[in-house]
Amino acid sequence: MSAPGNGTLRVLPLGGLGEIGKNMTVVEYDGSIVLVDTGLMFPTAEMLGIDLVLPDFDYLRERADDVEAIVITHGHEDHIGALPYVVRELFPDDPPPVYGAPLTAEMARSKLEEHKLDVVEVVDIETGEEFAAGPFDLELLHVSHSIPDACAVIVGTPRGRILLTGDYKFDQTPVDGTPTDTSRLAQLGQDGLLLLCGDSTNADRAGSAPSESSIGPHLKDAFERCEGRILVTSFASNIHRVQQVVDAAVATGRKVALVGRSMRRNFAIGRKLGHIYAPEGMVISPKEIDDYPDDEVTVICTGSQGEPLSALRRMAHNDHPQIQLHSGDTVMFSASPVPGNERAVNETIDRLFHIGATVITAQDAPIHASGHGYAEELKLMINLTKPRYVMPIHGDFKRLRLHAALAEAVGIDPADIFQLENGLPLDIDDRGARIGERVKSGMIFVDGLEVGDVEDVALRDRRMLSNDGVFIVVATVSEVDGTTISDPEVIFRGVPFIDEADEMIDDLRERIERTVSDQSAKNGDEGGVDESELRQKLHDDVARFVYERTKRRPMVLPVVVEV
Fold it and tell me: Is 247 a catalytic residue?
């Protein structure tokens, strides 16, 4: 799809609508683009062998030269995690600058360096500092969240100002002592805000979110009741929570070990920038855990969402190289499952119970507070900023609809509220705002370091193999007349039937021989064998035979050997 016409302001969500995660929004005017957030999601159970899920940014492939800047609101994976892949795929030679508040910028540098993309210019921006990118005047506005340096993004355009809130809540007693900048939000409302793109994650929860600072005392209380080792799992980027765990460990005389590469990396970044403080000698390596009594050890690890390769998931399956869980351990989930991750989290918890560990979740004790505002806070955001138009973002369709209802409840005209989805742009020009022409959107997969399409044949094959297994049939035929030279070979793996396998395999060999014989007779006087045609016929006949006998559809791989 081409760029919008001159004078048209376009806001195009490529991720984060109709889902929780992989947030990415394009703001476009007069042929220039600012990209706000480059997030990812973790794979669901049916995405076999997939490591990460990214937004489909195909819209930007032919527009890469038009991207003036990438702005990251904060350092959580659903907002920053896709950055290295976006840079590598779209800007291999001349990447645009990446902007973020100091902690966010440092996390961006770390990710880019890990992918050997350290040629990208990453710029630290203080909140309230204006900077230009093409026709856009940009500003970061401080908001409270579960990570330091979280920001909303103000995008000034010739059409008016847009506010993309990022993730936020109105925490009056935040851990870092700096609440959301309500005075700047109110000023935006007085000056005139064209469009509010607001976080919808907790639109379904009444009232206001509890303060992040309320969690520290509850963690300490929980620590005091534990006699063995304590493992706390949280998002690696939730630096405020990590500090609270460290404080609880200090208060109860425990050492702290960090497990998980992203946890160690973010802890080091937080410590470097002064967001985390741990007394000298407090932090030990995972190898030193066994040198201390169980009641003197705390482990902070990744895996709060049941991610397949995370530290806690591996511990739960007795597959971690350094830590083996045992009865008497207590595992605290200081995070809530992201919608869609409940199954993976519950499976991990069940494995922990099987080992004999005690599990404490946010349902059992107040050891987690959401970083996203509840319904009253979403209404406060709208009342402060008084936007001309409202566009709910960052939420599944239920939460987007509920956010739209909240906007209507505080006086926004329903005609000025736009419930969109990924790939549907909002275009604003002299005639007002309207939904534009749909563009390609969806998701793309990361398998290892390779980026592939959602329709990748490999993923389809993995699903088939996981469900019904594979049959390999080898037919050895004469290159002269196409007849069978030796008995067909049949190999099967992962086929869930088979009580009378020997009898079935004998029958299958007869079917294969009959197929080869029929194909040879079909060739008649021409002799020889059409290898491609024979393979296809073997595939069809074997698949039909196996389904008749097992009511399963395994993958069938025919091999023809000419002798």
Answer: no
Residue 46 to residues 43, 120, 344, 407: CA-CA distances in angstroms? 8, 35, 11, 36
- Looking at residue 134, which CATH number applies to its domain? 3.60.15.10
Model-level pTM? Answer: 0.79
Q: Which of 372, 394, 396, 468 is catalytic?
A: 372
Out of 78, 149, 171, 199, the active site residue is 199
Q: What is the pLDDT of residue 526?
A: 60
pLDDT at 519 over 90: no
Please say if 171 is a catalytic residue: no
Which residues constitute the domain of residue 509? 460-562
How many other CB atoms are there within 10 angstroms of residue 187's CB atom? 14
Q: Is 4 among the domain residues?
A: no
- Residue 401 contacts by C-beta under 8 Å, 6 or more apart in sequence? 419
Residues 415 and 297: their CA atoms lie apart, in Å, by 57
What angle in degrees, to the nearest 10, is found between the helix axes of 375-385 and 182-191? 50
Q: Does residue 148 register a pLDDT over 70?
A: yes
Domain end point (choices 326, 360, 394): 360
- 342 membership: H or E segment, kind and range: helix 342-355
**Contact residues for 312 (Cβ-Cβ < 8 A; gap 6+):** 231, 233, 301, 302, 303, 304, 331, 348
